Amino acid sequence: MSSNDTRHVQIMIIGSGLSGLGTAIRLSQQGLTDFLVIERGPDVGGTWRDNTYPGAGCDVPSHLYSYSFALNPNWSATFSPQAEIEQYMRDVSQRYGVRDKHIFDCTMTGARWNDEDGRWEVSTSQGSFTADFVVSAAGVLAEPNLPDIKGISSFEGEIFHSARWNHDASLAGKKVAVIGTGSSSVQIVPSIAPEVAHLDVYQRTATWVMPQVKRPYLGLERFAFKRVPGLQRLLRALIYIQRELFVVTQVKYPATGIVLEMIGRLKMRFEIKDPELRRKVMPQHRIGCKRMLVSNKFYGALDRDNVDVVTDGIAEVRAHSIVTDDGTEREVDAIVLATGFHVADSPTYNLYTGRDGRTMSEAADVEGFQMYKGITVADFPNMFFMLGANSGLNYTSLIYIIESQINYLVDTITTMQAKNLRSFEVRVDAQHEYNRRLAPKLAKAVWADGGCTSWFLDKHGNNAALWPDFSYKYRKMVRTFDIEAYDTKAETA
Ligand code: NAP
Fold first, then answer.
1. Domains, in order of start, for the chain
2. Which residue of 243, 250, 297, 339 sits with most ligand 1 atoms within 8 Å of its CB, as the best mutation to test the pocket?
3. Which of 365, 373, 374, 479 has the fewest CB atoms lying closer than 10 Å?
4. Beta strands 314-318; 321-324: pairing state
5. EC number(s) per UniProt (predicted)?
6. pLDDT at 1 over 50
7. For residue 294, which atom of ligand 1 is closest to its CA?
8. Do the Cβ atoms of 371 and 136 come closer than 8 Å?
9. 8 A C-beta contact, residue 145 and residue 339
10. pLDDT tens for residues 323-337?
11. What is the residue with the minimal CA distance to atom 26 of ligand 1?
12. What is the pTM of this model?
């Protein structure tokens, strides 16, 4: 890639969701202005741009779900709808002047470390680039998981994934099937149930559902958020502390989850009249093993006369119907696949080729998906992997982790510049030791032995997704670049 058409930048950010956009803003604030963001979509927003399904919203309270440097006094409700978060991200990208650093509709097709030149070579749908540093901000929930069900390609009605909602397809008055009962499904089902003629909800695993205090903010409250100094910060801190309590039930003392399970049972008792339906949706795993669902309307929707919960496995999809393992055939006009995303097996990992010529997927195949502090990877020099292995959270705002990782990234790059270094690569022994210390915490968590499988686990059964401790400990851990864990090379000229 030495053609004259190749453009060089110091820092190439891949993806402009919450991590990529946040990184772009912080870099420009630090005076690190030689960067570009490539984004495969037509605008910023990532998952909040792509998930436009009916009822889409955030189940983390709105005042915690924003960048710490761009609080928003105008959130309309205690939990924000998707469109508001998407608009917030557009506004922020405008306000902080990073839009002209973006190339939209530009898909990264490969990124290879050139050890001789000490650079990344990045190929995209809009030409070739080289970069001193690459920031993978492609997102965890970006690649829809399309289930491999017999006959599914022969279905003749409307069929689409929750993250690729077809707004041209009206579901009103139709017979509809929703496959999956995860966080997306619990928002979709109550939104479409009143308008469809009939809805079959295909549930493979019942999951615990928690209530939420969801209400619009009053004008007076929004006025106070704007005018009373510190009020938003205080509310944010209180929400943060309240959410951290989930670490106790999931990681520190999983037995205490029984309190939440009691709330889940009571909720089921109050919201579902039909005892047979209550039996069907009763989870068989410990709470928190899968991501808890949050909804005040899901059970009520399942209890409607025009809604059936189907728990038999799906054997086959035919041109106009779905057949379950017991041989029952149910006619259907449209199928919504609320079947989640490729997380541990994201196709993105095939696109990065490290120093030894292996892709990230190939490396993960052998060793499992392992990183150092959730952001750097041995054999992949000068690369930051946002929301990498074991840096996810399933109970609070991921933006907290994203901003922690940005601190580390900025400190790494400024340290490199100050020491006149060209490349950094985490040492294999440091990465192994880090993961060795993480292992007992992961083993103790409810995700490991709570009696379920989930997208937190990779094909080896290892949890490579979640951070197994309080989130403030993660922030503390990545406050500064710990150069002693890295091999570095000096600038040559
Ligand atoms: P998900 O949680 O992975 O749920 C996928 C659902 O599809 C599960 O019920 C799964 O069953 C089912 N499924 C998958 N393949 C299937 C197959 N072949 N046959 C039958 N059922 C199948 O996906 P999601 O609901 O899209 O949520 C993904 C993540 O997005 C969430 O965990 C959350 O982190 C995030 N999210 C967040 C919000 C928010 O408000 N913050 C909202 C939506 C999504 P099993 O359980 O048996 O695997």
1. 6-143+342-490 (3.50.50.60), 152-207+245-337 (3.50.50.60)
2. 339
3. 479
4. antiparallel
5. 1.14.13.-
6. no
7. 40
8. no
9. yes
10. 999 999 999 999 999
11. 340
12. 0.96
